[in-house]
Every structure is written in C-alpha cells, then in structure tokens.
Amino acid sequence: MTPTDGWHRLSPVSPVVRAGRAAIAIAVLIVPTALRGGADLERDAPQLAVVAVLLGLGFVSWLVTRWRIDADDLRIETGLLRRQSLRFPLAQVQAIDVVRPGLARMFRVAELRLRMAGATGATARLAYLPERDVEPLRALLLDLAHRGVSDTAPEDAGEERVLTSVPTGRLAASILLSDVGFFAIAILAGLLVAAVEAPAVAAGAFGGGAVWAVAGLTMLWRRFNQEYKLTVAEAQDGLRLRSGLVALTAETIRPGRVQAVRMVEPFVWRRLGWCRLEVDIAGRQRRKGEGEAQRAPLRAILPVGSRSLAEELLARIVPDAPTERLRAPRRALVKSPLRYRFLSFGRNETCVVTTTGRIRRVTAWVPLAKVQSFRRVQGPLQRRLALASIHLDTAGRSVHANLRDRDVAEADAVLEALVPLARAARRSG
Amino acid sequence: MSEGTGGQLDWHRPSPRLLTLRRVEVAAVTVPVAVAVAVVLAFSAAWAAVVGAAVVLALGALAEWIARRRVGAWAYAERGDDLLVRRGLLFLRLSVVPYGRMQFIDVTAGPFERSFGLATVRMHTAAAASDARIPGLSRAEAARLRDRLAELGEAQAAGL
C-alpha cells in the first residue's frame, strides 16, 4: 500500500469490531438470564436484532467511508445519507494516537487518531486499519506534518530513547491510594461489611450493591488498563507514549506541541513521595459518546513516580524550568485559607510555574511561548486586601497557570515583565 | 490606572450611545413593572400603589447607576504588540491579547445594538479562557478595529 495515492478503505473487519462492543454488552445481559431460565430465543430476539442492526449499519458505514492523503491534508469521506467530506490539515496535527482495544487486537486492526488544533479541536479518526499499515502510516503522517508532502518513503525514525516506564506494582498501589481507589474501596468495604453483619439485608441490597461494585471495579480497571506499563520514549518525531494491558494505546506528541505540564500530588501520595505528571496539548475536551478506549485521552506521562523522576522528565519537556518560588503574601490567607500553604509561583525568561491546591498540590508549568493571553483579575475581597491574580491562558484543555493572590504591585510588575518576555519567546520559538 | 501596562496609554471607551442603550434597557424593564405593581396595589390602597411604584422606580434608578458605572469601566487600548481590554466593576479584569495570538475576530450586533448603530467586537485566541470583548462600539469604529486587528494579526501571527 502506498498511502499517498488514491482513495483507501478502512479494514473490512471494522464493522465487526465496532458492533463487538455492543455485542459484548448485550451478551453480559443475556447470558446470566439464559443460564438461569434456559435459553429463550424469543425473549432475547430484540437484543440479538440490535446486534444485527448495528452490524448492518456498521457495514454500510464502512462501505461509504474512504480516506486519502492529499497534498498536506488527510481527507475522510463518510456518510450515506448525509455525505461528509472532512479535511484535516496535517500541519495542525498536535498528536497522533494509535488505539487498539481488546477486540481490535484479536482482529489485528487498530484505530488511528489525529488530534488537531484549531477552534474546533476536532479529531480525525480512522477506525479501523490493518495493524501492519498503521505504523508506516503514522510515521508518514508525522513526516508530512513536519515537511509537507514528499514522494520518498518515510525514513525510519526508529531510534528512540526510553525515558521512563512505570512498574506495575507501584501503579496498582497508586491507583488504590487515589481518589478513584478510595471510592471503589469504600464501596467494596461497605458491601463486605453489610454481607458479614447483616446477610439478610445484604442479600436484598445486593442487586443494587452489585451495580456499585461493578462501577467501582470498572473505574479501577479503566485507570489500570490505561496506564499499565506506560512507557515514555523520546524520538525524532516527538514524545512517544505507550501503554495498556488489554486496550493498547500508542501516542506520539509532536515536538514543541506541549502547551503545559502539570504535576499533581494528592495528600496520601505526598507522604509516600509520589506524584503524577501530565502534559496538556491543544485541542478541545473529548466529546461524549465516544467509546471507553477512545474516551480517555492519554495525558499522564508519569502516572506515578518519585519527585526526582518527575523532575527529570520535566526537564526533557520544559528544559528551563524556574527553580525558585515566591510565596503568596501572608494576607492571602484571608482570601484563600485552604490554598494558602501551597500558593506560590516562580518565573524566568521562558517559563512560569505556579502552585496551588487545597488538599492535593497541583504545580503547573507554562512555557511563555505558549501563552495565548494574559488576564489580570481582581475581585472585591482581593481589592480590599490589595491582592490581584494573573491568569496565563493557554490553548491546552485543562491546565492553566494562575498566579493567584499576589500583592497588587507585584502582580502589575510581573504582568509588565511577562508580556514582552512572552512576545520574545513567541518570536524565537 | 495603568495596571502593568507601563507609560501613558491611549484608552478608548465604548460609544456614549452604549449608555443610552443600557438606560433604555433599564427603563424598558422598570417602567412597565412599576405600572403593573401600582395597578395591582391600587386594589388595596392608593398609598400602597404609590409606595410600590416608588420602590420599583428607585430600584430602576439603582440599576441605571450600576449600568452607568459598568459602561464607564469598559476601556480598550491598542499597543504596538497587543490589545488591552479593561472592564468590570466588582471584579476588575484586564486582558492582554497579543495580536499574533488572535485566531479570528468577530463583530456582532444584536437588534437593540443595531438600532443604536452599535456593534460588539470579540477577539478569539486558541485559548477558550481568553476573554477580550468590546461592546458598544460605533459601527465605523468596530469596522476600523476589526480591520486593524486582522491586519496586525496577519503580520504577527505565531503558530501554536
């Protein structure tokens, strides 16, 4: 296959993989009742019909979907009744993900997702492609994104350096000790206690309790599955992230596309010296209605690790992070009593770092070259206390730097200094 | 007031017609409400109707005072590399939007704004949190600002 010429179809097994998800869900519903009351095809016919219809629709959608690489764009045409022709300029690609849910792996196919910048922040999805074509296509797309179209085959951008890989035991422990973990543990413990103390009540509540238990375990599983063996590697074409136990995800973030970096240290983790490092890239928040494997974009580059490891990684992404921190003035305690102990910021010529958080400590690094706009905000209470906040807006999805509750004179001086620095950073980078 | 802006700045304000528009809006709510309250209360006692109407009108006057100060708080200044927009009464906000970061500019005018010959100019960057909006510009000024910003944005555009 030479991906640069002509139209291509997705893999013919795509409709099966797509419908498979619904088929599994329905099987979960049907099988227990079928086991208990014997097979009852008449009663289960509607569910089976749903699977058949999904399969049929998927097949039609596969039939009318095609894609091609056209100069600097990826074009996707889809839709039977409402024909859509989508054009994704490769220069705006922020990251490319290769996602392989469990079922897709069985069929040896994978989904390719191009995360775009721009006001709409759309994602181009090619689901599913044969596994062997995905890797060359990913390399080609990244190559085109860098240099514009070329006739030569993409050279192997192979040599990569593994930066970190997360040990499984620590990941499991960290998830159990996280907010999601506590929630799931609380549910399971509650059910256990109920089962031991009052079996009669528990039996009655088990119907409802089981749902909660499943929900709790699902949350844990999702997190674990997503971040299992997360490996970060540095290569020519960007930062490569690979992870997953059943659903495999491989993400490539183009160089210089990281908008902000965030370090989160929840209360319990801090005692253990652990932290989580996340990167933010441009794009809109994920949409509703996307499947499980697609829904959670891989953002943690270090799901759990020591501070020193996090700092090492950080130095790769933000080479020149400010070291000294300035605490907020003491009177900020009145305005932000819970946040006060963490409030601080630091800056140098290229980067700003801010720390905040009530129970968990959140540290955000924003390169000045990525700042979209500055905002100085002063509320009524802040005005009385002679405080002001400076917000640094970035194109990222969730990480924002906010110099919260600084002295007014300091805030003005910082703003005055940062604006020209950001301009210089923007021009040079 | 020149927060973090350095030196003397040429602050422009929205058109005075914006204040007129806001006053008309306040009056359009206050007067009918006052009349309705007076009519309803007139069934019980004449003095109650007068007091009720007076209270509503007093609230209207308060709203007018707030509207006047809010309109007075809006200001914008064009600098060499960025646009400053200042606003807010209770929460003072100052936005600094570099021209190079502007993705697009839109000019909108609702039916009321249009009947007063006014328009709102809004600058969009790649960050959703960026908030640079200037309401109540005269149509000519809005067009001038739009063209100027588009031109400067083109000249200084920076990638993400």
Describe the overall structure.
The complex is a heterodimer of chains A (429) and B (160). By secondary structure, chain A is of the alpha+beta class. Chain A has 13 helices and 20 strands. Chain A has helices spanning 14-37, 41-64, 102-106, 131-147, 168-176, 179-197, 199-227, 267-272, 292-295, 307-317, 332-335, 380-384, 408-428; strands spanning 66-70, 73-78, 84-89, 93-100, 109-116, 123-130, 160-165, 231-235, 238-243, 248-253, 258-265, 274-281, 300-306, 326-327, 344-347, 351-356, 361-367, 371-378, 387-394, 401-407. In chain A, helix 1 (14-37) packs antiparallel against helix 2, helix 5 packs across helix 7 (199-227) and helix 6 (179-197) runs antiparallel to helix 7. Chain B has 2 domains: 16-70; 76-156, PH-domain like. Helices cover 49% and strands 22% of the residues of chain B. Chain B has helices at 16-42, 46-73, 111-115, 139-156; strands at residues 75-78, 82-87, 92-98, 104-108, 118-124, 132-138. Residues 1-6 of chain B have low confidence and may be disordered. The interface between A and B is medium-sized, with 36 and 29 residues. Strand 18 (371-378) of chain A pairs antiparallel with strand 3 (92-98) of chain B, so a sheet runs across the interface.
Strand residue percentage of chain A: 25-35%
> Overall mean pLDDT score of chain A?
82
Structural class designation of chain A: alpha+beta
- Helical amount of chain A: 40-55%
Query: Helix/strand-derived class of chain B?
Result: alpha+beta
Number of domains of chain B: 2
- Per CATH, the class of the largest domain in chain B reads Mainly Beta
Question: How would you name the oligomeric state of the polypeptide chains in this document?
Answer: heterodimer
Using the coordinates shown, work out and report the CATH topology of the largest domain in chain B. Answer: PH-domain like
* CATH architecture heading of the largest domain in chain B: Roll
Distance linking N and C termini of chain B: 32 Å
Taken together, the total number of domains of chain A comes to: 3
Based on Cα principal axes, name the global outline of chain A: globular
Mean pLDDT of chain B: 88
For the secondary structure, the number of strands of chain A is 20
Low-confidence stretches of chain B at least 5 residues in length (pLDDT < 50)?
A: 1-6
